[in-house]
Amino acid sequence: MPTLSRSALYELVWADPVRTVAATFGVSDVWLKKICAGASVPVPERGYWAKLQAGKVVSRIRLPLRDPGMPDELSIGREPYSWRWDPEAELARPLPDPPVFDEPIDDIRARVVKRVGKVAPIRDLDSPWGAIRKLLDEDDRRRAKQAAETWSSSFYAPRFDSPFERRRLRVLNSLAIAFARSGAKLDLRGKEARELNVLVGSQRVAFGLDHPSAKPTVHGEWNTRPGPVDVLKLEMKGKYEDAGVPSLWIDGDAGKLEHQLTDIVISFVVAGEAQYRSNQLSRHAWLIERRAENEAEVARRRAEAERKRQEQQLKEERERREFLFGQARDWRAAQDIRGFVGNVLLESGGADGAGDGLLASWSAWAFAEADAIDPVKRGLQPWRKADDHEVEDEDEEDGEY
Fold it and tell me: Tell me: the pLDDT tens digits for 318-354?
């Protein structure tokens, strides 16, 4: 799968039409445009190439800076499906250069601050964000069932009716809209809205928003909290102090969470970029370790192949020696037979006619047997490996048809 940087892709799509570039990668122009859009790589507008060919003045759209958390390396096409680990093929590919981040993290923060602006809390849930609307709609359905089924009223009790949960949803709603405005996205899952992540580019920053004492059940499940408005704590599930990013906000001296939303949104977006950089550095370190593992594996396989080659060589030498010993044994046996028959004929000189005929027949047969096992008489045959015999047998079978 070809991998190239945003700047390299930008140069390609401004040097040739997208359709031409897409064909070189074996993908459709629609697919390539989606990749460009997702990476904020501008492509020439409709009519650009016709104007250029007609000699009219055209200009490129400048490549914008990489958004926080967005990868700089893009994969075009699809990776061939294979479970086979081939260390030699991996070693044949050059080790990528260490990741370099041209823009300091403080400059990233300044861009984010400018983009986010001031985040004001949304005081109601009249026009809630999509995922929160679904939670409230589900509560309406539960409320209706609760009214209709009085015998099971607790089972159908709405989950987000308590003042604590309503406030929590209002905070999440304010964050969701602010994140969308900053190029990130709140990912809210679970019936109790306790599975929380912020998608910043390609990064997923997990966090929790609940009462400081809230804990999951022994089965790892969360419950909504009944009761009045109480202390809220928002905490990232990760530490980003090296990037100067706080990870904890709580109602307190700094004010309620609703008054800290601007800092929270900015911190999450910067945390996404910090996480991306950390992951890139970790991946490069892993690639170096992986390369060492591949080199060790290749060396092990070669040593194993050499060991098997030497074992095979010793085996063949033993088999060749045994073959020679066998030929010598056959030759001696043939000589013994000939000597034995000769002595029998020598000592039977006084036999009658009938006996002479029988003896002659026997001796002819015995001499023929000696010749049959005598490697010199039947022609010395060189030793051949088992594989050679198998190939010869296959050739003989093919010749029969």
Answer: 999 999 999 999 999 999 999 999 999 998 874 444 5
The answer to whether 186 and 176 are in contact (CB under 8 A) is yes
How far apart, in whole angstroms, are the C-alpha atoms of residue 25 and residue 2? 8
Angstrom distance (rounded) from CA 334 to CA 377 = 10
The DSSP bridge partners found for residue 250 are 233
pTM for this predicted structure: 0.78
Compute the chain's Rg from CA coordinates: 42
